[in-house]
Amino acid sequence: MARGNTRQRIQDVALELFGEQGYEKTSLREIAERLEVTKAALYYHFKTKEDIIISLFQDLTRPMDEVIEWGRTQPKTLDVKLEILRRYSEALIGAEPLFRFMQENQATMRELSIGEMFKERMHAMVDLLKDPDSAMSDRIRCFTALFSMHAGMFVLKDMEGDPEEKRTSILEVANDLVVQAHRNSRA
Amino acid sequence: MARGNTRQRIQDVALELFGEQGYEKTSLREIAERLEVTKAALYYHFKTKEDIIISLFQDLTRPMDEVIEWGRTQPKTLDVKLEILRRYSEALIGAEPLFRFMQENQATMRELSIGEMFKERMHAMVDLLKDPDSAMSDRIRCFTALFSMHAGMFVLKDMEGDPEEKRTSILEVANDLVVQAHRNSRA
Amino acid sequence: MARGNTRQRIQDVALELFGEQGYEKTSLREIAERLEVTKAALYYHFKTKEDIIISLFQDLTRPMDEVIEWGRTQPKTLDVKLEILRRYSEALIGAEPLFRFMQENQATMRELSIGEMFKERMHAMVDLLKDPDSAMSDRIRCFTALFSMHAGMFVLKDMEGDPEEKRTSILEVANDLVVQAHRNSRA
Amino acid sequence: MARGNTRQRIQDVALELFGEQGYEKTSLREIAERLEVTKAALYYHFKTKEDIIISLFQDLTRPMDEVIEWGRTQPKTLDVKLEILRRYSEALIGAEPLFRFMQENQATMRELSIGEMFKERMHAMVDLLKDPDSAMSDRIRCFTALFSMHAGMFVLKDMEGDPEEKRTSILEVANDLVVQAHRNSRA
DNA sequence: TATGAATGAGCATTCATTCAT
DNA sequence: GATGAATGAATGCTCATTCAT
Question: What predicted TM-score, i.e. pTM, was given to this entire model?
């Protein structure tokens, strides 16, 4: 029996169950049972239920923060924008379960403190992709691009086809949208 | 105290609260209290909690069904497709709170019977918009078009601008995506 | 649709359901639903739930009362005792569902006013069968005789064999017990 | 306040109340209140309400199982049969409250899983007492013997006399029945 | 003879959380 | 680094009953 990694195991199981059933419908009893520990053990590692998902959010969104930080140091050329999308799309792979969770538990997100954190990140990304004086429809294009990247992977889960192919198809559609927005605002 | 409209009032308040706090976190006690009736009164009008939202779904999605029915009788020209989008966008207006609810409670939707009903409707719409032999990226374009129409209205709620203008902007973006898909599949 | 017999129909369905599921677990809603009337209709015919079963008890135990009344006018010979058993066994046939109900809902009976009524009847029967100075084991024989007649029919339901044959077999065993008691007390 | 015996105390109080008022009419609130714990504490020790009485059944019927096991190893002589009755009668003493409960809540028993367990035990006992080719009336004698032993103790509670004397009187009547059945089948 | 609408009290069950050990 | 035992608050739901119509 592995030692000292209980905290990690709790996170894994929690994300799995939150994803399957939603945050509200997943009880600490379930998490504890699947791990074969007692509920009280969870409380040794995390102060509250919300604490568990906050910790997940912080751990899993670091790669995305890095994309944003990198983007901020770059000029607003089309090439950079597309590179941001590409990196973002890759960063999303590891965080898929978390995004699936966030996507599917938005009502819950709003009351949890991480809801705000996520919104800020989203706006930061849009700011990198759009130009300062973009028309509304172009801002919507950028939004839609990001949005479909977040949602795409699991919404399209029941569409036939190879996952990696789907990801690049989604990326292609997102690219198109950003290219369009870029051109419109420079026209 | 008004008579005979209790059922309707329950639906109204329920949709409001489900939208604000999510389905799981909204208790029947809350709904009853806001209506100043007892919980048992809710059970006179609806057999279960799930029954309440099923009834909402059925009542509010009728206009969309009509769009789909109409679309099925039409030829698959680009003009028809754009007309479908336009009508669908309009049909969505009245159902906004419901879609907001569904968008934000996807984890819950999966266990509720209306989850399936919704998926079917979505597929029916995509079938009207895409051509039989479309490439994956074009099917994704159609999906994304619909998806952003559903989600757009409330996701963009905190973006400044007139709601009606937003709606037409979203429609414009959706149009572009469908036009693109249409052209690709005929090329 | 028959008229004016709703009261009777309520009694029939109630006894059926009380027998199937027990008194506590049978709700007025169920009775009403099976009759295709509203709960409120039941309250037009009976003041309370308990009232329904009291009325059943009164209607169905009349034949037994008649046996007891007859027995009281007779001398305490063995022949009379056996005739009492025979008549009682026959009287039980029509009341089988009621006895099944009472047998299976004794805990409930104790709180319902008919519990007492039944006990009195039982003692009256034992008094007819035993002699004034019987030994305890002979009183128990009489008790057991009656008891097995009450319980026998449904307890033995899952034993193979013809129902009428079972009834006469039970009666035979009861006869033996009473004969034995009679002889002991005269020995 | 005593520790570590809460489970036992719950069982004791539950059996007492189930016996007094019936299973359905006894609420967990009542049990908890009488024990001066919260309802939730009951759920720490038992998964459901039914679980409480299952545990009681299992704990209290062990002595009877032992009688049956012993009986199976013995030849089917009359002496053995009477010894089985004697041991069974003794085993019943400790289980009196449980049998009282089962006797008085038969309607409930039918839906609870222990209903079946009990039926099997009853059949196993009859098989030990009757001979393979017994006539129906002899099988009924065996049944009646057992039945009156189960029911006798509490049904006769309001009959005057010493409890231990009652028990042996009942046993005597049961003996007679089994002797009779034994002789008939060997005649 | 009924019904439609509602109530008040209650029930079994679940949950996040606490704390002494 | 964990457990055993418990709590307080809540939840969805059901029930017998009432009463104006």
Answer: 0.83
